[in-house]
Write a structure and sequence with these properties.
Layout: E1 5-7, E2 10-12, E3 18-23, E4 30-36, H1 39-58, H2 61-77, H3 79-90, H4 94-114, E5 121-124, E6 130-138, E7 141-145, H5 153-164, E8 168-172, H6 178-190, E9 198-200, H7 205-214, E10 218-224, H8 227-239, E11 243-247, E12 252-256, H9 262-274, E13 284-290, H10 294-305, H11 326-342, E14 345-348, E15 352-353, E16 364-365, E17 368-371, H12 378-381, E18 388-394, H13 397-405, E19 409-410, E20 412-416, H14 420-429, E21 434-437, E22 453-454, H15 466-471, E23 472-480
Parallel strand pairs: 7-8, 7-10, 8-9, 10-11, 12-13, 12-20, 13-18, 17-18, 20-21
Antiparallel strand pairs: 1-2, 3-4, 5-6, 6-23, 14-17, 15-16, 19-22
Bound molecules: nicotinamide-adenine-dinucleotide (NAD).
Length: about 500
């Protein structure tokens, strides 16, 4: 199958574009080919989106919502079909793929509900016979740039709030996972979303992504990906005075205190560190453990590892799938070698699985645990984005929080403890955008804000009501029905 761009409600195949294969990371199977579009396809999509936006903004929001409800029902109807494609193109195990599609369904219904809310404020005026209110206004054409690790969920976090608020979108998915975007575009077509409201352009970041950021008619860029790319997007976007929302990397930690339910902590760590083969932005990559329970926790973690089957995520017994590609495998291995050189102790795993079937054709890395890791080591500071976790010993809650906060990222953190005083201190002092108590570092729900502090972002949030702030401008409206000129701050005596 050769994928086509979806522009202005039509499937466009442009003469002369180069195509590259989309490969199943579990076994090397070629799933499709994807075009490497150019600035010219971006221009076409932006023209269509700009034209459509004028009309779309005039459609009452509850009517716009009807399309989102239909999209939600379609996603629900196709859930298993989509989950299987997701597993094939991205590698995450099938139950997680189902969960990711469910996130899209939830987001569709949640944002459809916004069609009857999109609340602004009414507030008293300081003058008589005058009415004051604020409303959310759409901004225009929104450019979405998304990563491969959540190829459908992240796109729904961004596109649905943008669309419900009266914007139109041009979406550039990751070149690694274009199939989910292709499936979403089919759904946009099937539900009859007006032409030009949602467009998909496939291609690389430097070509298609940059062209979107630079385009004068793209007013907002919503980006999720690595810090290296995010800073380029921010720089270019800043030059063109764009509103840029960035969601980037993490170095998330689970804190295990001496009074924790250790069995629960082990389950939380295993799920957060090795689910999606450690390739979630919220993956646990550090365990900060109180010295009194370190040995017990380590023993329990190593024993729990033995029940993790590695393999093709379509097999329902498999718990850890492949990583996305060869470059990811090499990067993970590189960090493991760094960890060894830095003097950390390899407690489990540490190797690329390559030689025997099914591992010989895919990209598999053993779930890996380092212990005796010092906070200043590279493996404790940088995002590895693979199934590798570092155990760091501490002597108190205060030290645990300090270690948690000592990295440049601030996405997710978690604490396992039974002590309400420690828990409340921790949730106050952990400098991350998401905090979990007695659960791992993953598991966000779509009606709460999603994003991080410090180097993880630039103050915006995906999901929840907060997402609407990215895709709307506040407009303050004053209606004077006094029939005379009244001057604010001056004519105050009535
Ligand atoms: P990436 O930065 O390589 O790519 C992200 C997107 O940016 C892709 O669509 C890519 O094509 C595009 N891109 C690349 N260069 C570009 C350029 N010069 N201009 C414009 N766009 C460009 O990231 P990735 O490898 O796809 O994803 C993994 C990263 O994403 C990890 O760092 C992970 O933590 C992060 N992530 C963050 C969140 C979050 O919400 N904070 C969620 C998921 C993933």
């Amino acid at each position: 199958m050769q994928l086509k761009n979806y522009i202005d409600g039509k499937w466009i195949s442009t003469e002369g574009l180069q195509y590259i294969p989309v490969v199943n990371p579990a076994n090397g199977e070629k799933l499709a080919t994807v075009p490497l579009s150019t600035k010219s396809e971006v221009d076409q999509a932006v023209v269509a989106a700009k034209k459509a936006q004028k009309q779309w903004a005039l459609v009452p929001a509850p009517k716009r919502a009807e399309f989102l409800y239909e999209i939600g029902f379609k996603l629900k109807e196709k859930k298993e079909h989509l989950a299987r494609i997701l597993t094939k193109e991205m590698g995450k195990v099938i139950e997680e793929a189902r969960g990711e599609v469910q996130e899209g369904i939830d987001m569709a219904f949640y944002m459809a509900g916004e069609g009857r809310r999109l609340f602004g404020e009414t507030t008293p005026s300081e003058l008589a016979d005058k009415f004051a209110m604020s409303v959310r206004a759409p901004i225009g054409v929104v450019g979405l740039i998304t990563p491969w690790n959540f190829p459908i969920a992240i796109a729904t976090w961004k596109s649905f709030p943008a669309i419900i608020a009266g914007n139109t979108v041009v979406w550039k998915p990751s070149i690694e996972t274009p199939l989910m975007a292709y499936e979403m575009a089919k759904i946009f077509e099937e539900v009859g979303l007006p032409n030009g409201v949602a467009n998909v352009v496939f291609g690389t970041g430097p070509n298609v992504g940059s062209a979107m950021v630079e385009h004068p008619d793209v007013k907002v860029i919503s980006f999720t990906g690595s810090n290296a790319t995010g800073s380029k997007v921010a720089e270019l976007g800043g030059k063109h005075l764009k509103k840029v929302s960035l969601e980037m990397g993490g170095k998330n930690a689970v804190i295990v205190m001496d009074d924790a339910n250790l069995q629960l902590a082990v389950e939380g760590i295993i799920w957060s560190a090795f689910g999606t083969a450690g390739q979630r932005c919220t993956a646990c990559s550090r365990v900060i453990v109180h010295k009194d329970v370190k040995n017990d926790l380590e023993e329990m973690l190593v024993s729990a590892l033995s029940s993790l089957t590695i393999g093709d995520g379509l097999d329902p017994t498999v718990k850890v799938g492949p990583v996305i590609n060869k470059a990811a495998l090499e990067k993970i291995n590189h960090y493991v070698q760094i960890g060894k050189r830095e003097g950390a102790t390899l407690l489990a795993g540490g190797k690329t699985l390559t030689t025997t079937p099914p591992f010989d054709k895919g990209f598999y890395f053993e779930p890996t645990i380092f212990t005796n890791v010092k906070n200043e080591m590279i493996i404790a500071q940088e995002e590895i984005f693979g199934p590798v976790v570092s155990i760091i010993e501490v002597a108190s809650l205060e030290e645990a929080i300090e270690v948690n906060n000592s990295v440049k990222f601030g996405l997710s953190s978690s604490i396992f403890s039974q002590d309400v005083n420690k828990i409340f201190k921790a949730q106050r002092d952990l400098d991350t955008g998401i905090v979990y108590v007695n659960a791992g570092t993953t598991g966000a729900e779509i009606h709460l804000p999603f994003g991080g502090t410090k180097g993880t972002g630039n103050g915006h949030r995906d999901s929840g009501q907060a997402a609407l702030d990215v895709y709307t401008e506040w407009k303050s409206i004053y209606v004077d029905y006094s029939g005379k000129l009244q001057r604010a701050q001056i004519d105050t005596e009535n």
